[in-house]
C-alpha cells in the first residue's frame, strides 16, 4: 500500500480557519489516528484526503499519484482516488440487502457479474457477515451494520482505508470488541489506515501513531506511549486523560535533567528532561503519584485526602497539598485523612 502525504494543507470556512498549514505522512500499512475535540479539523482533514472537501491550499499525494495540488489545479474526484471510507452514520442504503450494499461500488465500476458475486462473498466472509447477505439493514444490529459499511469500503481493494468515527453509534462493550476486531483485520490485510476519533481510549488502543489536533493544527505527533507520556503541550496532556500541572522554579538536575520546586514540593521534583528555566510547568499523571498512610515525616510532603471514588480497578483520590489539589490513582483504599505524597523521579514531564 502507498504512503499518503499531506503538505501545507489549509482550509477556511468564511472567517473560521479549519486547517492551518498542516503536514504529515501516513506510512505504508500504518494505522494513523487523527485525535481531537469537535471542531479541531480532524474530519475536514479526512474529507480532504477522501475528495469530499476541497482545501484552499496544499497538496495531497498517494504514492506517486497526486490527489490534490492547489498550485497545479489538480483535484481528483473521490471515485478516482480509490479510497475506502466508512462514515460515522455508516450510510448504508435501507432498500438494499447486505449483498446489494456491498456490491454497489463494484456495479458502478462495471465489474462482471461472476467477479462481483465472488468478491462480495469473499469480503462478507472477511468481515464475518457471509450468513447475512440476504438481510436488510433494519434486520441488523448496529455492530453488524458497521461491518457491512466496512465491507462496502473494502470490496474494491482500496489503496487506503479512511474511518470517520465509525464506533460512535455503538454501546461501550460493543465498541471495545469492534475496535479489537478492526485492528486485527487492518493488521491482517496490511491496510494503510487513517482513523478519526475524539475518543482517547480508541486512539491509544488502536493506533500505530497519533496526531493530536486542535484549532486546525497538529499539536503532537507520536506513538500512543509517546503522546501519553511526553505530551509536550498542556492541551495534549489534558485531552489524553487526566493530568496534574505544577508550575515552579527550574534548576539543573542530575544526568542533564532538571528539578522543579514549588512551595508545596520544596525539595524538588526530578524531571528527566532538560529545561532552561528559570520557571516551567510539569504534567504528572494521577497513576504516577504515590500516596501512603499514615503520613510519615521525611517520606514526602504531607497531604490530606479530601474525597475518594472507587472506579473498579483503582481508587481515585483528590488530595490537598498546601494550596494545591492533586488527582491521585491507587489500588489501595485510604481513609480521608493525612497522607504522605511522593512524586518519583522521571514521571513528570515539561509542557508548554
Explain this structure to me?
It is a single chain. Helices cover 24% and strands 34% of the residues. With 352 residues, the protein is α+β, with helices and mostly antiparallel strands. The protein folds into two domains: 4-237, Rossmann fold; 242-351, OB fold (Dihydrolipoamide Acetyltransferase, E2P) (Beta Barrel). The chain has a six-stranded mixed sheet with strand order 7-8-9-3-10-11, sandwiched between helices. Strands 2-1-4-5-6 form a five-stranded antiparallel sheet, covered by helices on one side. Strands 14-13-12-15-21 form a five-stranded antiparallel sheet. It is elongated and about 80 Å long.
Main β-sheet, spatial strand arrangement? 7-8-9-3-10-11
Q: What number of domains?
A: 2
Give the termini separation.
Answer: 37 Å
Number of E-state strands = 21
Radius of gyration: 25 Å
Low-confidence stretches: none
Mean pLDDT: 92
Oligomer: single chain
Major beta-sheet overview: 6 strands, mixed
Fraction in beta strands = 25-35%
- What is the CATH topology descriptor of the largest domain? Rossmann fold
The string of secondary-structure elements, in order, is EEEHEEEEHHHEHEHEEHHEEEEEEEEEE
Number of helices: 8
> Which percent bin holds the helix content?
10-25%
Structural class, by secondary structure, is alpha+beta
Under CATH at level 1, the class of the largest domain stands as: Alpha Beta
Second-tier CATH architecture of the largest domain:
3-Layer(aba) Sandwich
Which geometry do the CA atoms define? elongated
The name of the CATH superfamily of the largest domain reads P-loop containing nucleotide triphosphate hydrolases
